[in-house]
UniProtKB/TrEMBL annotation:
Domain of life where this protein originates: Eukaryota
Organism: Culex pipiens pipiens (Northern house mosquito)
Keyword match Transferase: yes
Protein name as it appears in the record: transketolase
Summary of subunit composition and partner proteins: Homodimer.
EC number: 2.2.1.1
Transketolase-like pyrimidine-binding domain residues: 273-437
Enzyme class: transferase
Protein family membership: Belongs to the transketolase family.
GO molecular function terms noted in the UniProt entry: metal ion binding; transketolase activity
Length: 580
C-alpha cells in the first residue's frame, strides 16, 4: 500500500474520483483500515479521524463503501474486486482510451472463489495491460491456513496460464515492489499479476505468521508491538511524500444524462413483437443517442437481442461469455465514475447466480441496468432450468432498485429509455413469446405509474397482469363479458415501485376485488407486491395466481394452463372471488 500510494499510483487528493486518475480496488475489504490509513497519510483527511473506525457516526466502516468519496465500490464480499477492476480497465483501454491504470488487491484466501478466475480469464482474453492484480499471499485464512499457503510457484503457474505477466515478489521489500510495479506499467498486451509473499503481522513479536489473529485487536500487546515497530524505523523524522499526479484530462468529460431513444417506437397496433426483441431495438437507439451506452452479455446476445447494439456499435459491446458473476462485476466497474451507461443482459434466471454481485452493486451505489429475458414457464420446451421464476423477487429486495415489467414493444422501448436515466439498480424483465402491441407509439410511460388497458363503468373485478399474463387477463375479461361479468385490466409497467394509488383506486371501483396473475413463483413477485399495497385497506380481497411448483418442458400455451396462469384459470378465479 505504501509503494502504491506514494510511488506508483497517479491520483488527485483534491478529487479522489477524478476521471483521469488511477483506480484502486481493495477486493479484500476487511483490510479497510490500511486503505483508510493510506488516504489519511496522503492528506485527504486528518490521521486522527482513524480513531473513529467502525463507529456509528463515522463513514470509516468495517468494510469500504462509497459513502466515502475515495471509494468506488463496496468490497468485502470476497471474490468480486477483480471483476470490478476488469470493468474499469476495459473502459479505460477501449472506451475512454485514456492512460489511467487500475490496481486491485486480492487476498490469497479469496482467490479460492471461482468468480476470481472468471475475471482473470476475462482480463487475459482482452489483454488488459492497464490492469495490475496484486495477490497478498500471507498464507493464513480466517480460521486456518489457506489451501496453497506459500506455494508461490503454484500461483505463478496458474496466473501465467491465464495470460498474465506473473511476478513473484517479497511483499515486504519496497525495492522489489517498486521494480514490479514499474514492470507492470511497461508490459504490453498482457495484464500483470504481482504475487506478493507476505506474513500476517510482520515484525509483530509473538504474533507474526500465527493463527487466530484474524480481525482481532492487539489488546494488551499493543504497546509492546508499537514500541518494537518504532525501534525498527530508520528515519524517524517527518517525511512528506506527494503522490504522482495523473495526466491532465486524459479521460475526457462525458455526459450520461438525458438519454433518449434516437427515434420513437414505430409499431402497428396489434403487431406481434417479443419484448426481448424490442429491448434490442431500444438499446441500439439509445446507443445512437449517447456514445456512453454500452452493452454486456453472457453469450446470449442472439437470444436477448443485445446483438443489435453489437452490430451497430461493436466497440461498445463487451462479451463476457458464460460467466455471469464476472459479467455483473465488470458492468459495475464499467459504470464507475459515471464513465458509461451499462446494460447487462442474459436469461433472467442466470442472474440468480450473480445475486451477491448485484447486492454489492447496490451497496456500491451502482447505476447498472440488468435485463433478463426468457422469464417464466412461457419459454416452453427448454424446461425449468432456463425459466426465470425468482427474478422479480430477487430484484425487488435490492435497496433502491427499479423493476420494470413491460408487456408490449412500445412499453419496452420506453422502459429502456427510462432505465438509462434512472439512478440505482434497474431490472427490465423481457419475455420470449411474441405479444401484441397494445400501446400507441406516442404513449407516455412513467416509473411507478400503471396503465388501465380495459375498463367500463360496470367492472366488478380488477385483473392485474404483466408480460404474457396481461394478455391472459385481457382474454379472460373478453370471455367473462359473454356471461355479463365485466373486469377492469391493469398493466403495472413497474413492479417496484408499484402504483399503489392506482391499485387502491381501481380496486375500490371494482367492489374491492382483485385477481393478480403472474408468470413467476408466487413468493416475492407481482402478486405479493399487490398484496403489500392493499394490506392496510379494508374490504379488499385478492386472488393470487402464480406458479406454485417446479415446472417442466412443454408447449408454452400448455404450460401456462398447466401451472394455473392461463385465461381459463383467471376466469375461474374471477368466478370464485365473486362468490365471496
Amino acid at each position: 500500500m505504501s509503494v502504491l500510494f506514494f510511488n506508483t499510483m497517479r491520483y488527485k487528493i483534491s478529487a479522489p474520483r477524478d476521471a483521469s486518475s488511477d483506480r484502486f480496488i481493495l477486493s479484500k475489504g476487511h483490510a479497510a483500515p490500511i486503505l483508510y490509513a493510506a488516504w489519511a497519510e496522503a492528506g485527504l483527511f486528518p490521521v486522527s479521524d482513524l480513531n473513529n473506525l467502525r463507529k456509528i457516526d463515522s463513514d470509516l466502516e468495517g468494510h469500504p463503501t462509497p459513502r466515502l468519496n475515495f471509494i468506488d465500490v463496496g468490497t468485502g464480499s470476497l471474490g468480486q474486486g477483480v471483476a470490478v477492476a476488469c470493468g474499469m480497465a476495459y473502459v479505460g483501454k477501449n472506451i475512454d482510451k485514456a492512460d489511467y491504470r487500475t490496481y486491485v488487491l486480492v487476498g490469497d484466501g479469496e482467490s479460492a472463489e471461482g468468480s476470481v478466475w472468471e475475471s482473470l480469464h476475462f482480463a487475459g482474453h482482452y489483454k488488459l495491460d492497464n490492469l495490475c492484480v496484486i495477490f497478498d499471499v500471507n498464507r493464513l485464512g480466517q480460521s486456518e491456513p489457506t489451501s496453497l499457503q506459500h506455494q508461490m510457484e503454484v500461483y505463478r503457474k496458474r496466473l501465467d496460464a491465464f495470460g498474465f505477466n506473473a511476478i513473484v515478489v517479497d511483499g515486504h521489500d519496497v525495492e522489489e515492489l517498486c521494480k514490479a510495479f514499474f514492470e507492470a506499467s511497461s508490459t504490453k498486451d498482457r495484464p500483470t499479476a504481482i504475487i506478493a509473499k507476505t506474513y500476517k503481522g510482520k515484525h509483530f513479536p509473538k504474533i507474526e505468521d500465527l493463527e487466530n489473529w484474524h480481525g482481532k485487536p492487539l489488546g494488551d500487546s499493543a504497546n509492546t508491538v508499537i514500541e518494537h515497530l518504532q525501534g525498527l524505523i530508520r528515519n524517524a523524522g517527518p517525511i512528506q511524500i506527494t503522490p504522482p499526479s495523473p495526466q491532465k484530462d486524459s479521460a475526457k468529460k462525458v455526459s450520461i444524462s438525458n438519454v433518449q431513444l434516437a427515434t420513437p417506437p414505430a409499431y402497428q397496433l396489434g403487431e406481434s413483437v417479443a419484448t426481448r426483441l424490442a429491448y434490442g431495438t431500444a438499446l441500439a437507439k439509445i446507443a445512437m443517442n449517447n456514445d456512453r451506452v454500452i452493452a454486456l452479455d453472457g453469450d446470449t446476445k442472439n437470444s436477448t437481442y443485445s446483438d443489435k447494439l453489437r452490430k451497430a456499435f461493436p466497440d461498445r459491446f463487451i462479451e463476457c461469455f458464460i460467466a455471469e458473476q464476472n459479467l455483473c462485476g465488470v458492468a459495475i466497474g464499467a459504470a464507475c465514475r459515471d464513465r458509461t451507461i451499462a446494460f447487462v443482459s442474459t436469461f433472467a434466471t442466470f442472474f440468480t447466480r450473480a445475486f451477491d454481485q448485484i447486492r454489492m452493486g447496490a451497496i456500491s451505489q451502482t447505476n447498472v441496468n440488468f435485463v433478463g429475458s426468457h422469464c417464466g414457464v412461457s419459454i416452453g420446451e427448454d424446461g425449468p432450468s432456463q425459466m426465470g421464476l425468482e427474478d422479480i423477487a430477487m430484484f425487488r429486495t435490492i435497496p433502491g432498485s427499479t423493476v420494470f415489467y413491460p408487456s408490449d414493444a412500445v412499453s419496452t422501448e420506453r422502459a429502456v429509455e427510462l432505465a438509462a436515466n434512472t439512478k440505482g439498480v434497474c431490472f427490465i424483465r423481457t419475455s420470449r413469446p411474441n405479444t401484441a402491441v397494445i400501446y400507441d407509439n406516442n404513449e407516455p410511460f412513467h416509473i411507478g405509474k400503471a396503465k388501465i388497458v380495459k375498463q367500463s363503468a360496470n367492472d366488478t373485478v380488477l385483473l392485474i397482469g404483466a408480460g404474457i399474463t396481461l394478455y391472459e387477463a385481457l382474454n379472460a375479461a373478453t370471455e367473462l363479458e359473454k356471461s355479463g361479468v365485466h373486469c377492469r385490466v391493469m398493466d403495472p409497467f413497474t413492479v417496484k415501485p408499484i402504483d399503489g394509488e392506482a391499485i387502491v383506486q381501481h380496486a375500490a371501483a371494482c367492489g374491492g376485488r382483485i385477481v393478480v396473475v403472474e408468470d413467476h413463483y408466487k413468493q416475492g413477485g407481482l402478486g405479493e407486491a399487490v398484496l403489500s399495497t392493499v394490506a392496510g385497506q379494508r374490504n379488499v380481497v385478492v386472488k393470487h395466481l402464480g406458479v406454485e411448483e417446479i415446472p417442466r418442458s412443454g408447449p408454452p400455451t400448455v404450460l401456462i394452463d398447466m401451472f394455473g396462469i392461463s385465461a381459463r384459470c383467471v376466469v375461474a378465479a374471477v368466478n370464485d372471488i365473486l362468490k365471496l
